[in-house]
Hints:
Mean pLDDT: 86
CATH topology of the largest domain: Rossmann fold
Shape: globular
Order of helices and strands: HEHHEHEHEHHEEHEHHHHH
Strand content: 5-15%
Number of domains: 2
CATH class of the largest domain: Alpha Beta
Distance between the termini: 35 Å
CATH architecture of the largest domain: 3-Layer(aba) Sandwich
Structural class: alpha/beta
Number of strands: 7
Largest sheet: 5 strands, parallel
Radius of gyration: 21 Å
Amino acid sequence: MDELSFLVHHFAPFFDNLKFVITDIGWWVNKYSRILSRFVAGMTHKSGINGSVHCFPGAVIGLKFHGLLALNRTDIPGGYSMFDFKHFLAQTYNLKHRNVFEIKREKPVLILISRAKTRRFVNEDEMVVMMEELGFEVVVTRPNRMSNLNKFSELLNSCSVLVGAHGAGMTNEVFLPEGAVAVQVVPLGLDWASTNYFGEPAREMGVKYLEYKIEPEESTLFQTYGKDHVVVTDPQSILAKGYQAARAVYIDEQNLKINVERFRETLVQAKQLIEDSSDLSSLN
């Protein structure tokens, strides 16, 4: 979607005659219909239906993959960036908060992404209690709620802190206002992927970013394999076997029992970052 949003700007002078051809119709067309409608003023063609044939004087075939949640500015005419992509989404969904200090709430809102399968927080209730004790208004969101982007993007745009374990749910940081804080819980063996797939993009979009790297004891792999097993003591040796081997263990088999007192320190830091943003806005 980030590459497609670049095309919107690149072909803006030709919108009246531009057609967007979709060759693989799936669930994502409905989920992202609001975004797709902005590409060509709502006009799309679904190729292959009823054997119809469409002729065009020219075409751009396919998209270039720049990385997960990434755009390579040097490879794009005009230097379109992740910050620009985030702004494009804010316009598309009519999000009203550009900056976190514009949010007027009695308590800062913290959204906790609750995963349904792997990399779950097995002591989620305990985490919520701690978050509320710190003064956050906590909203626990599950996959069914995140599927409606029209409503969920608005909720995200009114929150100050987003918390989640490494995974697709962290892509929702694209809807956070500038100055909000994304806190990613980094499971065992997923340090590089966490930082590169979600940490760097967050910073590029004007979102403050914190990582909470778990200790081995906070992973269910510690109980499954034992403290001296190579899975626990040397994740790099498993990662060296290739993606499938690493995924089977660290992505598909791992859940998290967070040390709440240790995690509290990260959220205190997140709250301070939000307060600093508000203090700076009052000086302008």
